[in-house]
Amino acid sequence: MIPHTHANGTQPWAEFDIHGRMAFRVAANSPTVSILLDMCTPFRASGLDRYDLTITGQHEAMPEASHAEHELRYTDHAVHLLKSDVQIVVDGDGYRLHGRRELLTAALPLIDCILVRRGVAMIHAATVAYKGRGIVMAAWGGVGKTSTIAKMLRHDGMAFMGDDWAFVDVAGQLLGYHKPMFIKPHHRSIYPHLFAAKRKPLVPRALSKPIAELTTIVHPLVTQYPRVARFTRRWSPEHLMVTPAAALPGAGMATEAPLELVVFVERFDGSRPVLEERNVDWMVTWLVGNFHAELPRHSREIMTALAATGFLPLDRAFQGKRAVLAAGMDGRPAYRLRVPAAWSADQASDEIVEHLLRLAEPAGAR
Prior knowledge:
The chain is of the alpha+beta class. It folds into 2 domains: 2-118, no CATH class; 121-202 and 239-292 and 323-365, Rossmann fold (3-Layer(aba) Sandwich), CATH 3.40.50. It has 11 helices and 22 strands. A 9-stranded mixed beta sheet has the order 4-2-3-6-11-10-9-8-7, with helices on one face. The longest helix has 21 residues, at 345-365. The radius of gyration is 21 Å and the shape is globular.
């Protein structure tokens, strides 16, 4: 890990502590600091004395670096991705990450890698605590996680943990992530108070999908310019960016709960919902694959670069994550719920909530 202060003792930092399992810092003068402050606000900290990840805007020298065609330059301790101009330096079991672009997407796989070494795995899922027990609803993007969360929290005994990302540790604890929520036009009926307030204009619901597809295409370009990326997040007509407290006024909030139930939700070309019980091995496979697939493209490029230069072989990365999730989920019930793709987000979320409550109630009553 990296010592607290820079060699000259003068560099100011923004500091973050993820559930006491890993710590990282970002140079206050780096182009990416504002985005990381936005997205990692729940983990803000101060006065930390050790770090697993340090993020700055300045590259380090790489004398006698080897070449991997026009993609990479690397040494025994560092790799430089030429296209994105991002550099990763290995420092013991931690990293230093450097670049002038948005570095949130570059940091995500490094954070996950460090956490896995500490017995914690990041997952892509909506999460709540019900009567003190953790429920995971994993899904592909667009399935209805954000809609489902709002409706789940209308029931007694519910507390919000996260609408998109969360963590599971080897002891079976579910750890939340209260990051900002992205509310889209089709959420109007579910979050009416957000649309009643005077906020930025949003595109009509009919244009929401094509605008989202365009955003995905231009995202790699936009993230090269951190100020533009931050402006886009805040003012894109595709969505509203709001805190969970604003989106869910009066809702309980939880940061940690014993894991009780895991459900993987899919949209499919069927006419009625289908619920299937699955074993832990099946669920672990899907959680690992879903997390990797839902990472931004640049995050996957970082993993490829680390694997290509021997710093983090892909088989080791996936096996480590599988081991953490398998231990954390051991003995917990797991299900796949398939909901018709033709249903609206409102209709689908009603069905998902009904199934989640029915599956969780016996466990919650114990």
